[in-house]
Amino acid sequence: MLYPPKIFFSLFVDDDMVRDMVTYTNQRIDVRAPKYANDNIQSVSHTCPEEIMALMGILIQPGAKHDNKLITEMFDPQHGAPLYRAGACEKKIQIPLGILSV
């Protein structure tokens, strides 16, 4: 019997952990929102579990492939893998990534 990858992933990262990441990230977005407005970022919205899961998948993939590139290189239209751009847009993941890496 084949199981979807999410089943195996949930053995390491469960829904409660993802919910905590969403809560923490949204709290930090609220604190940093005035700074983003000054940086001409057009819209900053709260994240959701699906976006956090997409971000984690985007981060796991280069680790599994030993792809040691910066986020800007991963999302480069000419040289980056299409998989990263299919998972999320670069600007959308930069904010949660910056918050979660603190």
UniProtKB/TrEMBL annotation:
Domain of life of the organism encoding this protein: Eukaryota
All residue ranges annotated as the PiggyBac transposable element-derived protein domain in the record: 5-78
One Pfam short name: DDE_Tnp_1_7
Protein name: PiggyBac transposable element-derived protein domain-containing protein
